[in-house]
Write a structure and sequence with these properties.
The protein is α+β, with helices and mostly antiparallel strands. The protein has one domain: Hotdog Thioesterase (Thiol Ester Dehydrase, Chain A, Roll), CATH 3.10.129. 35% of the residues lie in helices and 34% in strands. It has 4 helices and 6 strands, in the order ααββαββαββ. It is globular, with a radius of gyration of 15 Å. The mean pLDDT is 96.
């Protein structure tokens, strides 16, 4: 996978400035997992003195979307990607630095291979879990990615 945290963080600055301004930063990516962090600050807070849910969603989606993008690039094919559905669960106030991790890289790899082999669109659900500095889960996001080989 030729996506690096440095390249992706620069991409955020240029193409997704709201995510970059909110402090979302990729820390690690490989074939099986992706890690993104975001710190609770004034610019990304809600009225309840915690991180706004949409900022958590941006960070969580980045953990999944970066791996999808990486596998698409590795395939050498033109494949469209789109989030069809998502859901989230919030279990604790998000304050301090929140780390989101997705471990579903192999699921994406299999779905892309199947899309290429069959020529049919595929879907894959990916989960990203956010934890605070103490390792306590604050939120879980699930994203259903659709993948289709372009002609």
């Amino acid at each position: 996978m030729n996506i690096t945290p440095r390249k992706l963080n620069f991409f955020l600055l240029l193409k997704l400035p709201s995510a970059w301004l909110c402090g979302i930063r990729m820390k690690k990516i490989d074939n099986t997992s992706c890690t993104v962090t975001v710190k609770h600050r004034w610019i990304n807070q809600n009225p309840f003195n915690s991180m706004f849910w949409a900022v958590q969603g941006m960070a969580a989606e980045l953990t999944t979307g970066a791996m999808v993008t990486g596998y698409i690039r590795d395939s050498g094919k033109k494949i469209s990607m789109l989030v069809a559905n998502n859901n989230a669960t919030f279990t604790k106030k998000a304050t301090g630095r929140i780390t989101f991790v997705c471990h579903d890289g192999k699921l994406v790899e299999e779905a892309i291979k199947k899309a290429i082999d069959t020529g049919e669109g595929q879907t894959v659900w990916m989960k990203s879990v956010g934890v605070n500095r103490e390792g306590v889960e604050v939120s879980t996001f699930n994203f259903e990615w659709t993948l289709k080989v372009k002609n």
